[in-house]
Write a structure and sequence with these properties.
Blueprint: H1 13-23, E1 31-36, H2 45-50, E2 53-59, E3 67-69, E4 82-88, H3 97-106, E5 108-119, H4 124-133, H5 141-147, H6 155-164, E6 167-175, H7 189-205, E7 213-220
Parallel strand pairs: 1-2, 1-4, 2-3, 4-5
Antiparallel strand pairs: 5-7, 6-7
Helix pairs in contact: 4-7
């Protein structure tokens, strides 16, 4: 994998995106932010508007009058273009992530940013779970049935799909770091202690394994900075 992450953070995806918006407020002339997967009540709307952006919410099945319908597996049909697109824990729900990222890139202004978060299949816990169960964390049968997680987006695959969509990665950050603590004594203790040691060994040599999620900021290639 050519792409290497920044230092793993304890922060969750919401903290990461809030910090991004504080560092990159809307231009003085105004800006537009697309919030994909906004749901009924967007967690990020107030932060986007505080940063000066006109917020536009989208979802596959809108449950609010403030949110418009958009299946990102299909091209965006509106005339407006975004300075920033938030795609927070959405891409793993899509059957065609390459199409989705390309359609989102087409909805960005030149120089616009895609801020994307997704479960991290390189997480140490995902690796040990896969070793014992055959399934990586966040992509078990339960995650498929309950959460509709269908596509684990490995960072090297994400890097390729983003590049093919005309975007370049500016930041790759591992999020949701969990501290590996000794487990209380129980019948399962030996196995849990072994898993903990395995995870520590993995994380000691691989920074990308140190968080349950990861975030990417990607810029649409174009004239604007």
């Amino acid at each position: 994998m050519r792409l290497q992450p920044e230092a793993a953070l304890a922060d969750d995806r919401y903290v990461f995106v809030r910090e991004f918006l504080k560092r990159r407020p809307a231009p003085a002339t105004g800006g537009v932010l697309f919030d994909i997967g906004a749901g009924e009540v967007s967690v990020m709307r107030a932060d986007a508007e505080s940063a000066g952006y006109a917020w536009r919410g989208f979802d596959l099945v809108p449950s609010s009058a403030d949110v418009s319908q958009w299946n990102i597996d299909t091209p965006f049909t509106g005339s407006e273009r975004a300075d920033v697109v938030l795609l927070m824990d959405v891409i793993e729900h899509t059957f065609n992530p390459g199409f989705a990222i390309r359609n989102i890139a087409d909805a960005l202004k030149p120089g616009g940013r895609l801020v994307m978060t997704t479960p991290n299949p390189r997480w140490s816990r995902a690796r040990t779970l896969h070793l014992f169960s055959g399934f990586p964390a966040c992509f078990t049968q339960h995650d498929l049935d309950v959460n509709h997680h269908v596509f684990p987006l490995w960072p090297h695959v994400m890097e390729q799909l983003v590049a093919e969509a005309g975007l370049e990665v500016e930041r790759y950050v591992v999020l949701d770091r969990d501290e590996i603590k000794p487990k209380p004594l129980s019948a399962a203790s030996p196995g849990l202690w072994v898993e903990g040691l395995m995870r520590k060994a993995i994380e000691a040599r691989d920074l990308s394994s140190r968080g349950m999620s990861y975030a990417v900021v990607a810029r649409r290639v174009g004239a604007a900075a």
